[in-house]
Fold these 3 entries.
Entry 1:
Amino acid sequence: MAGGIDHLYRYSGASTVKSAADGPCMQFATSGGAGEFPYFFQGSLRQPRQAARLLRVLANVVASRFHLPPAMLKRILATRDPVVTCGGGMLRFEAFSACCGVYARVDLSPDAYDGVVVGQGATNVDFNADFRAALAQIRDHERVGFSVGADEVALLRGADQWVERKVRLPLRWLKGFVEVQTCQARMERRVALGKIETLRFLRSLPRSTDSRTVHHAVPTSGPGLRLTQRACPEGTEIRGLERLRILDELAPWADALELYTDPVSGATGWRLRFGPLDFHLVLSPETWRGFSGEGQALDDLASPEPTRLLSLARGALRWQAELRAEEFATDWSVPAAAVRQTLATLGTRGLVGFDLARAAYFHRELPFDLGLVEELHPRLRDARELVATDGVKLLRQNGDDREAEVRGDGVVHRVRLVGETERCTCPWHARHHGGRGPCKHILAVRIAFPTGDIDE
């Protein structure tokens, strides 16, 4: 599989900060969306300097590389445009680091702006060098107008100042968006720090550290957090600690810090709060592990689509700003687990993201074709081939307890699935124990012998 998908981005012009009679106006060049150049939002920022600072750090994340596989630099840097989503009163900017091991998001709540949400949608924005430089010059005393989708595009359709850029859409980002929401949906909050403790912890991070060193963030006897290399039950394991240094610039202004962890993969989530603005940073379990290769969404991709619930959930996206499994389970009189799988399925289709702060999914349709995601997972592709070629033999099944033999490379592997517990005799499972998603043999059994229709 090639390293990207051909996708033509059409920008009305470069992103700029323009001078206006009542102050600078921040305008993003957009690509895609519901219309050719849609208007999602128009207004002004109440804390322009802080918002600009968060967006500038987001751009720094995009430009950062914490791990670089050989011969991949040119391919990774082909496209680095963050995704902006508007809906439910929220404005969100999302991006990955160049190595895809760090996910970042800036959230602006309704209290962060004065303006009108013209529509709902998601698109790509152009963060060019001039625009990033302009962000650094914004001050709080200025009135900064803010728009996503420039007015001039709609009014000057057919004008001669169009910027067209044919790029290779990174498959790593495509898969990364699918994977990171799966990890976030499982995360549990471990620590919440106030302003002083947040600054103290971020300032205590070592200036340099070996990416292979394992650290543990441990709550102190007071309302603080400290680092140690000794494992303990109350600690949160962190690998690739140097990636947190990206937060240095934001530390003095943060009101609070929340730490989350995914008990399955070991990924960690960090939420910095700045009044009505949030900065989210999610770190992959290890520096060399990009979210694009994790495989955490494979179970959801392999599961039969719950057609009735999926239709209900898709319909809810048209009017519901946030989706929570427990609320919909009550409304629809179905098990919460069934709704969680349905929402996870929407995530694998690129229709929703996950907000740690609200513990809810939000509507976000990625502005590129996610129909290829399933094809981009070799394990899932191989599992479907095993099923299609009669490579799976069921030995016994009793409810959700299944045991089967699956054809391997010159050997037959034994697979047993009991509820959420998965076992396989193959080397992949022995090495990762599900920490990087299921092996192709487990997926093949799940596809060939599902436990039942969750719509019932």
Entry 2:
Amino acid sequence: MTADLVLRNVTLPTGRRADIVIAGGFVRHVGAPVRADETIDCSRFTCLPGAVDMHVHMRGGVQAEKEDWRTGTMSAVAGGVTVVVDQPNTVPPLTTPELLRARIREAEGHAVCGFAVNAGVMPGADLEGMWNAGAMAFGETFAAPSSYSEGLDPETLGGLFARIHALGGLATVHAEEVSGPAPTTLTAHDNARSGAGEARAVRAASALAPGGMRLHFCHMSTAASIEAARGMVEVTPHHLFLSREMFEEDDTRARMNPPLRPHQPSPLEACGSTSAT
């Protein structure tokens, strides 16, 4: 076999060293050396499986200046992500089977990596129709108001969970508590959407879900929230590596939901046996 490119002496996840042979844009062989047009010494590197990013916003359409399927998936691949899961808060939001199918067709024409699309969750939405149209999961399901959605009351949220569970679906959950006046500083924003409130919201959402339901909690920002979660959790890079103290109080670049927290041990340290994405 002659290859276009061979990555020499890569450390595999098992600890074994091997060559990775690439031809025609595909990995063709992992193992013993072969001849190649180009070789790269990778003896200092470890090869990891492609990552799945469960929470992306590919935008497109009237929001294309922010991101679209091509630019977003090119960025994903450059960072080692080979599958992305798109959130449904597009314009318009993905709340019907027809809109979901159109979104999937858009991705099929422009994405450069694997993808899946979530269905929007709201009272009266055709959840079964969107599931049959190819939805990977449902939500974000908002247990609190955020930038793109009002929070659902417990009775409505529990009813939607029951419908999703009956389909065998996965619900992705934005869990927070919101209190007090509109914040004007980062500290006030943190207090209005506190870490303790996030953990309480996680426990409340878990209690509303039917037994055995598949749950995925989005962007957990504290160790306590991870410990409280039933199901999968995800943690964002900014919550892992940034803290509130790194920014001026009026710096709106550092405002997001859930907020950046005061410096604390990494949320991943609390994962233990919990699955984390």
Entry 3:
Amino acid sequence: MTLVVPYDNSELSKTALIRAAQFSTVFDQRVVAVSVVPRNNTTYARERDWIGSNERFDTEAVVTTLRESVAKIAPEATFDHISVGRDAPSGTIANKIRRFARQNDASIVFVGSENAGRIVGTLTVGSSVTTDRSYETMIIPHAKPVKIKELETALPTPPEIQ
């Protein structure tokens, strides 16, 4: 079984990754962070601070940035990325994440991305990624994680996230 984290380098996705890493120490399951990267979408990449304001889009550089960010937060986690078309609709991104979660035998998907509104839906938590019944979903609604004693004991939250 696997703990999957859709990861876009936002504060919420970082918190979701921390929470998944904490759960992995308790449940003894591996953590996999996955980023969906629209090809050649400079605006999308700049909005997420994947590239600087004067940088050209470079998929390899974006993936490296995301991979390094994941490794800094959760060194034991593995990282994967999925490329989609430049103007992929939100449904495509959510479908890719759901498929990835199923293919990686996810027990829990930790959703804390800035795209949570596109993935989860703004009115309910029950749409898109969360509708798949092959795994549980944990929504991370706050960039600063709520302290849970048992999880903090297993793996303390890094000071830069607290």
